[in-house]
Amino acid sequence: MDDEVVSIGVSKGIEKIELSPGEVYSGEFDILNLSKTKSVSFAVKISPYSVDDETYDANFYDRDDYNQIVDWTTVDTPSGELMENERKTISYQIVVPETAPAGGQYLSFLVEVKNDESKEKTLSLSTKSRVASILYASVAGETVEEIEILENNINIFNLDHPVEVSSLVENKGNIHTPAEYILRVYPLFSNQEIYSNEETPVENTLLPETVLFSKKTWDETPRLGVFRVVQEISAADSYSSRERIVVACPGWFLFLCLLFVFSLIFWFIMRVRERKNIIKNY
Q1: What does pTM read for this prediction?
Q2: Cα gap 220→109, rounded to integer Å
Q3: Which of 79, 91, 131, 272 has the most crowded Cβ, counting Cβ within 10 A?
Q4: Fold of 147-249
């Protein structure tokens, strides 16, 4: 019998809620068996959620002051079984302490497939699959939104790849804060936009006391051209706008241009030497 990948999905991949000290909050999310022919057993684990480094790689293990919510939360169904294509609602409850600190609190509901070992031997089922539903909670009180835009970069030369912009943004506050990124591209001598994502800007959520590296490309960049590129970044009360002249060209074209320039320089040097020799001989 052919191997079958057993996997699950969750609704509400990311949910944002508001809490108050002393409150009891109830919520829910769904688990779906994506297998068409196999039932799966699952387990739900309440874990901390944070990010590593500027790349924002998810971390479901390490804890700090922003993960106290893990101790306040319980689920009604920590384990169970789903038939093929079945969806199950998991309810959770958060009992917020009176002394809960103001600001952001973050956790993840990790849902993991538990394969039946006897079935695995006979049907060659796949190994474990795991998904997460992330919860961003804002606890009422004295919250601080403080954003610093550390870098707003635009690559001047783009060889054999699209126009690219990047940034580093730091959240110095105690609450998650949205950041918005807008990229605009103009011809060199015109104010008529070639490209803009203003109607659907890139949006990132910055976690407290973290620095986020973000990158955006203009995928429709022609292979050859010179443009004016503008990147605008806004988050809380911080705003940054950067404009640069950008060259997009294939590597071979740049090589030919450099070869032409060096050839002109070499020709000029040889001409100067030739004239000096003529004058000297005269």
Answers
A1: 0.82
A2: 38
A3: 131
A4: Immunoglobulin-like (2.60.40)
